[in-house]
Amino acid sequence: MKYRNAGGLLPPELLFQIQKYCEGCVVYVPKRGKKAVWGKNNGTRRRYDERNTEIFRRYSAGTPIRELSVTYYLSEDSIRKIVREKKRRQSKKLKEE
Predict the structure, then answer these.
(1) Of residues 43, 71, 42, 34, the one with CA closest to residue 55
(2) Which pLDDT band holds residue 66 (cuts at 50, 70, 90)?
(3) I want to staple 19 with a disulfide (CB 3.0 to 4.6 A). Which of 3, 23, 40, 65 is the partner?
(4) CB of 57 within 8 A of CB of 85?
(5) 14-18, 38-42, 51-55, 58-62: the lowest-pLDDT one
(6) Rounded distance between C-alpha atoms, residue 63 and residue 76, angstroms
(7) Among 3, 31, 26, which Cα is nearest to 18's?
(8) What is d(CA 7, CA 10) in angstroms, rounded to the nearest whole number?
(9) How far apart are alpha carbons 90 and 77 in whole angstroms?
(10) Contact 45, 39 (CB under 8 A)
């Protein structure tokens, strides 16, 4: 993100209005349009979903949480959270059918 001086960028009337609210501050102006979902564009979300599905599959097959924790370099609490979320989604899907 590039810093730009609003004095040379905005019309004087608009600059004056902004100065009433936050003179001397740094203000972030978000892009127009819809914000992208985290990890959607670069595939990160898909990779984590695949990893979490594999963790749940292995847990369901009897792999202990401690072993999953070591294998995936996650805390036991993180493994439990993933399993709990996958169970919740699975039961929600079954109720919808």
Answers:
(1) 71
(2) very high
(3) 23
(4) no
(5) 38-42
(6) 13
(7) 26
(8) 6
(9) 20
(10) yes
